[in-house]
Design brief:
Blueprint: H1 3-8, H2 14-27, H3 33-66, H4 69-116, H5 128-170, H6 172-182, H7 185-219, H8 221-227, H9 230-281, H10 295-336, E1 356-364, E2 374-380, E3 385-389, H11 396-404, E4 411-417, E5 422-423, E6 431-433, H12 444-448, H13 457-466, H14 470-475, H15 493-507, E7 511-515, H16 523-536, E8 541-545, H17 549-553, E9 557-562, E10 565-570
Parallel strand pairs: 3-8, 3-9, 6-7, 7-8
Antiparallel strand pairs: 1-2, 1-4, 4-5, 9-10
């Protein structure tokens, strides 16, 4: 399927999904409802103060015409006071709406944090580009929509009724013109929304694609540079950006067109009233049974008529923004919908004995896959080393993530057990060392105590000794206070791996999960890492996913994984 086809195709059940997204979007406003309600109240007050201000201005104009100096002064005072009240009410309404938006965005980001981080125990996974997009942009899209639309739901009917009531009270024919014009606006708004929906879908798809391209480009910059492919990647990035520009321009064009249609209707209504009032003041038109128009009456009607349509303009703008918010709500809902209501929190490990692991009829299948990635029954005895070997993509890393509790099995159960405890995996209760060591732009000390910030200096030194880092630390310019560059700049791959071992040791976990811990190391470095692991994991249970023969040879038991199935590769090894 081409990209253009992706934009155009609608999946079956789109209407039902859109209805669910609409309901979910509405529910998202709950954290800010209090602020939105207050904002709507102050918007209504702003309208009332504005009507009063224009009344004062019309009164002043009438007083000038009648040469009533006292009335002129009082009219100007009333105009000044009500102008201040209008500004204050408008500022307060905006501030309250912003607070409501902040509450909505914060709640959405909390939900996303719970869904995207491993603490949620989700089966499905979200790509980093989409996750960042949802966390940074989409939450604000939903919040901004509610900040605009929710106060209007309270203020718009009251404001329009107030303007209509004042207009009818001073001159009812002008109110009839407003009522007749109003009937045309909802239809225009509905057509505008349907017209804009397709463009919003295309813009969302283009944004998602550009995010993915940018993220992949940055992550693979070194590889692209080494392969001489930066030019081609730049062209891909340019194409994705141009596609987003076209989609955005299309949305703006459609919004402009629908807005222009509404402006024509509103302008026509105001023009009719203005023409009628002008002709009536000149004495050319007189509607039977209508009150006589004076300067005060005519000027007040002309000033408040545009206010009648202001809420409708704002609702039209919110209607366009709703399509953007609907796209955002659908994307966020897809991320959080399968997050369990109750999850095991990450915590400092409490188990003080070696931890055995039991896999009972464990099955795991990735979303969209047609077969199980893992189909395993196994037991890992406490205090032993077990190596899991197999081809790349056979499921070794997935199996480790199930044991760690980073993923929930699609079926079956994973249990940790000691002589006194049998429980589900606890996030943070195991130590994880992988083939890619994440080092922060911080000191060596801070990188070691990343998982245990409150660790004492003595505990850090023990971790350094266990990982065989003492000689490395002594060779650094400032020892443990040496600052590492981004990505661990300043230490070798083997030294970075030792820092990861020290970090894991400091956690105090009795279950270690190692994912290719000696990958990309030469023979000497690999031997040193194996020795460091032996020291650091003394008395602990260790499960290793590896291709390395020397590392597998150091294990008590070696299992092979093939198409997700575990089977013995060789008997217990006597080291």
């Amino acid at each position: 399927m081409t990209t253009n086809e992706t934009y155009e195709t609608r999946e079956p059940g789109t209407a039902g999904k859109r209805h669910d997204d609409d309901a979910w979007l509405t529910a998202c406003a709950a954290p800010g409802q209090h602020w939105f309600g207050l904002s709507g109240t102050f918007q209504t007050l702003e309208t009332l103060f504005t009507i009063t201000r224009w009344g004062a201005l019309a009164w002043t104009a009438q007083a000038v015409m009648d040469r009533a100096t006292a009335h002129e002064a009082w009219g100007l005072v009333a105009f000044a006071v009500t102008s201040v009240l209008v500004v204050c009410a408008g500022w307060t309404a905006g501030t309250l709406a912003d607070r409501g938006a902040c509450a909505v965005a914060t709640d959405l980001r909390q939900q996303l944090t719970g869904a995207l981080l491993p603490t949620a125990g989700r089966i499905s996974e979200t790509g980093p580009a989409e996750a960042a997009w949802a966390m940074v942009d989409l939450a604000d899209d939903v919040a901004d929509f509610h900040a605009q639309a929710a106060p209007l739901r309270r203020s718009a009917p009251l404001s329009m009724f107030a303007v209509l009531a004042v207009t009818a009270a001073v001159h009812w024919p002008a109110a009839i013109v407003l009522v007749l014009t109003t009937a045309l606006l909802p239809l225009n708004m509905r057509l505008a929304g349907l017209f804009a929906q397709h463009g919003a879908d295309r813009q969302s798809a283009a944004t998602r694609h550009l995010n993915a391209v940018v993220l992949d480009s940055f992550r693979g910059m070194r590889t692209l540079r080494e392969l001489g492919a930066t030019g081609r990647r730049g062209q891909t990035l340019t194409t994705a950006a141009e596609r987003l520009n076209k989609a955005t321009t299309s949305v703006l064009r459609r919004a402009f067109l629908s807005g222009m249609i509404m402006d024509v209707v509103i302008t026509f209504s105001i023009a009719v009233n203005a023409t009628y009032i002008g002709l009536s003041l000149l004495g050319y038109v007189q509607v039977p049974h209508a009150p006589r128009l004076a300067l005060f009456t005519g000027l007040l009607v002309l000033l408040v008529c545009p206010m009648y349509f202001a809420p409708m303009r704002a609702r039209a703008s919110a209607f366009h923004q709703r399509e953007r918010a609907m796209i955002a709500a659908g994307a966020i809902r897809d991320i959080v919908k399968d997050t369990p209501a109750e999850v095991t929190r990450a915590a400092r490990p409490q188990l003080t004995e070696p931890v055995g692991v039991s896999l009972t009829a464990v099955r795991f299948r990735h979303d969209g896959a047609d077969h199980d990635t893992i189909n395993a029954d196994a037991d890992f005895a406490p205090g032993t080393w077990t190596a899991i070997t197999g081809a790349s993509g056979s499921g070794k890393s997935t199996l480790l993530s199930l044991i760690a509790g980073l993923r929930r099995p699609s079926a079956g159960a994973v249990r940790w057990q000691t002589s006194s405890v049998r429980q589900a995996p606890v996030l943070g209760g195991s130590a994880w060392v992988g083939q890619q060591t994440v080092l922060l732009d911080a000191t060596v000390r801070d990188n070691i105590r990343l998982g245990r910030p409150e660790a004492t200096e003595q505990q850090i030194r023990r971790a350094v000794d266990a990982a065989g880092l003492s000689a490395v630390i002594e060779g650094l310019p400032e020892g443990l206070n040496t600052r590492l560059g981004e990505g661990g700049l300043g230490v070798s791959t083997g030294e970075a791996r030792r820092i990861a071992i020290a970090r894991a040791f400091l956690r105090g976990a009795r279950l270690w999960l190692l994912d290719e811990p000696t990958a990309h190391l030469d023979a000497d470095s690999e031997r040193e890492i194996v020795e460091a692991l032996r020291r650091a994991t003394d008395g602990c249970t260790v499960v290793i996913a590896t291709h390395s023969f020397p590392l597998a040879a150091a294990a008590d038991t070696v299992l092979a994984i093939d198409d997700g199935l575990l089977h013995d590769a060789r008997p217990v090894n006597a080291r």
